[in-house]
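U., I forgot to send this yesterday:
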Amino acid sequence: MARYATQRFATRTPPELSGGGPRRYPVAIVGAGPVGLAAAIDLALHGVPSVVLDDNDVVSVGSRAICWSKRTLEIFDRLGGGERMLAKGVTWKVGRLFHRDREVYAFDLLPDPGHKMPAFVNLQQYYVEQYLVERCADLPGLIDLRWKNRVTAVEPGGDHIRVRVETPDGGYTIEADYLLACDGVRSTVRRELGLDFLGQAFEERFLIADVEMKAEFPPERWFWFEPPFHPGQSALLHKQPDDIYRIDLQLGPDADPEAERRPERVIPRIRAMVGDRPFTLDWVSVYSFQCRRLERFVHGRVIFLGDAAHVVSPFGARGGNGGIQDADNLAWKLALVLQGGAPPDLLASYDEERIRAADENILHSARATRFMTPKSEMERVFRTAVLDLAAEHDFARRLVNSGRLSLPCALGGLSLQTPAEPAEGLLSPGAVCPDALLDGGCFLLNRLGGGFSLLAVGGMAVPEGTGLPVLRVGAGGLRDPHGFAAARYGEALYLIRPDQHVAARLTGASAGEVRAALARAKGETP
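Result:
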């Protein structure tokens, strides 16, 4: 099977340099990686045009982010690319954990049926970026994607942001109502605003390699502590499309990055792991990582997303997934603000909600790193004891940490959600809507999202005069022949946000109470 062939995207002279003069845009997005492209597509689906500025003209080199979680796949599906990613990617839900030469235990991440998307799909970042670029082309007039447009300066103004851009044809300046910084861990925008991360940087170094080979390894996540082929360290194996395998090998804090990425050092390490079979190196990198974030993500009219806002270790697949979920959280809010449907204060909830998610990701990543890289003999003895006990005891398995795999952040108790008493079998405000296979092979999440709506499950009454579209499942609505929706939602009425989160549970509510919950979800009430 052929490897991915990188192609350069066409560049063109910006209108500001071809006689159009300076222009103002509702939104400027810096960075055409997965996060910036997802934000542009989501805004376009809400009718908001944007200009996307990227200093390169190719997709990412190397697989980089590969492990896309169920929630992220559901977001991609809403944006119009989920099925394509599912078709190309390697689907997996089983993980196996090894200590030295024995398997400790295995786990299944999605035992429940009736979901459109699997627990995880492995798909190289370059494919994801390509598919998102092609999706942008489906939205002409709403996404102005500019390659080889390097942002060099950012100047906040009273009601706009001025952005200086350099291109092969010369420099120009644009203005934007809002600027989204999606330009990664080395963010130019963050540097221009004089901002820095808070948190912890780790000295441990890891080798990451994409290896092309024919192998019988199943589509599962395999993680080793102290494997015989890499004594005293850790190792990770993931299968990707095109017979590409992702291999991560812990090297220790004293490893020389330049020396360790040389083929004569990499190839023997890979051969010790995969055996005497033919393989070819596709991409190699040596990295250390941080668990850090900005103090705030919203700085006036500049908003940070993805690695420009927060960085974590790659173990647990929380970086790329967290960035896509940033875009999912922000786009509908920014669209409402720009279109006059909500006050600008709504954007403060992006800080509130995504900082909670970032802190959750950072906490899990830091804990995984400490478990994977014990710093004292006592920590190593503790880890060995936990791994020995985990083979037979569930309580010990909960202590093993090779990277807690990405899950969506629940938003309960935050400002946009209308509180509700916990109730068995019912969803709480702030929860992500679970999917459910309905009659005729349709899925519930394909009917939710994009705008506010009411979801009535079972025979739940819906008050008149709310002004909201209603989706009814069961009792005269979409049939729920397998009972998945009933089991996951109970019999209740929910206000659903545009990002498929529950804003309120409104069983027995009046139209006025529904409108009050909607106003709160739009940031119109304290």
